[in-house]
Design a protein that fits this description.
By secondary structure, this protein is of the alpha/beta class. Helix content is 38%, strand content 17%. It has a single domain, classed as Luciferase-like domain (TIM Barrel). α3 crosses α4.
């Protein structure tokens, strides 16, 4: 188990903030002001990194947001989600290098493989496109000249003059559960992200990905994206979880989930399976509650409990190889404050190292 895990938060750029899950509140809708406040709260609270997610139908644009928030934060890294293929690669490299300079070298990248708005590709082609974009993006940000001729990327050019603060590509985070996704991560990612699952299952994923990366002469770090509900007592935490879904009906939940471009992915299917296998109370194993997945595509479970239980759960994931956590909660500002009060002082973490 590493001694300094990365503890990150999440900014709801994709209209994913609720007091009651599935009940929209205009005050919590994605906007510059609201998402800025989430990031600045996480920055003040000492989180290491913050995920800025990407969507089309929902929310606001993450690249534009990252540029705006870059100079309004002091310590926190910006984990910017970018859909591979959505932005012309030379321009994307220049945008990312510019944002990294604006935030003083605090940019990290979450590469996303999904269908682009208005376009559908089969899985094999989509991951080939993603892999090519990840490989060439890294080369451009490393300052290399490009002579690449693939199925989706056909480029011969020099890199832009502007470079990142340390003249290297920021670390690339990537997740996915199909065989093609795992191979893409093994070949081109720095941090493999998994969604919430039982500790044993997460450990199996880490072992599997370690073998895949080793076959390419590479090593990976491993991150877990999960929701968090922590209170002074377990009963209070469980009551908060129940309250969160107390006004949710299944039809509304399915409508919300189906707005995502990754609804049919293998990872989402695994989250559905986890929820279906849970007990009547929604817990798949102690302190792992699957109720969030009733109205959310993607990460569909929360770590729920008192401070000691939550930290013990995080440490259990650390024991099987996780050393980065991307946490979130509803509402995102209130839960960020609670996590900073009850969790961060109990677990040594960050800051991210320059050579990360």
């Amino acid at each position: 188990m590493t001694t300094r895990p990365e503890i990150s938060w999440f900014s709801a750029l994709c209209d994913d903030d609720y007091e009651y899950l599935g009940v929209p509140d205009p005050a919590l809708a994605s906007s510059w002001e609201h998402c800025r406040d989430i990031v600045q709260t996480a920055d003040r609270n000492g989180f290491d990194n913050i995920l800025l997610p990407s969507g089309y139908e929902l929310g606001i644009d993450p690249i534009a947001f990252a540029a705006a928030i870059a100079t309004q934060t002091k310590h926190i890294h910006l984990l910017l989600a970018v859909r591979m293929g959505e932005v012309w690669l030379p321009q994307l490299a220049k945008q990312l290098a510019t944002i990294d300079q604006m935030c003083g070298g605090r940019l990290t990248i979450n590469a996303i493989s999904s269908d682009l708005p208005g376009q559908v590709l089969d899985s094999a082609a989509r991951y080939q496109r993603t892999l090519e974009h990840m490989v060439v993006l890294r080369q451009l940000l490393d300052g290399e000249s490009i002579d690449y001729h693939g199925d989706f990327v056909d480029l011969q050019l020099d890199p832009p003059r502007i470079r990142t603060t340390n003249a290297k590509c920021p670390p690339i985070y990537f997740g996915g559960f199909s065989a093609a996704a795992k191979e893409t991560a093994a070949k081109a990612a720095d941090v493999f992200l998994t969604w919430p699952d039982t500790v044993a299952s997460v450990g199996e994923t880490v072992t599997d990905m370690g073998r895949r990366a080793e076959s390419y002469g590479r090593t990976l770090r491993y991150g877990l994206r999960a929701h968090l509900i922590v209170r002074e007592t377990e009963s209070e935490a469980r009551a908060a979880a129940d309250r969160l879904v107390s006004k949710l009906d299944d039809t509304t939940g399915e409508t919300i989930k189906n707005k995502s471009l990754d609804t049919a992915s293998v990872g989402v299917s695994r989250q559905n399976d986890l929820r279906n296998a849970a007990g009547d109370d929604g817990y798949a194993e102690p302190n792992l509650w699957t109720g969030v997945g009733r109205a959310r595509s993607g990460a569909g479970a929360a770590i729920v409990g008192d401070p000691d239980q939550v930290v013990a759960k995080l440490n259990a994931y650390r024991e099987v190889g996780i050393d980065a956590f991307i946490l979130s909660g509803y509402t995102h500002i209130d839960e960020c404050d609670l996590a900073a009060r009850y969790v961060l002082p109990r677990i040594e973490h960050g800051p991210l190292k320059p050579e990360f």
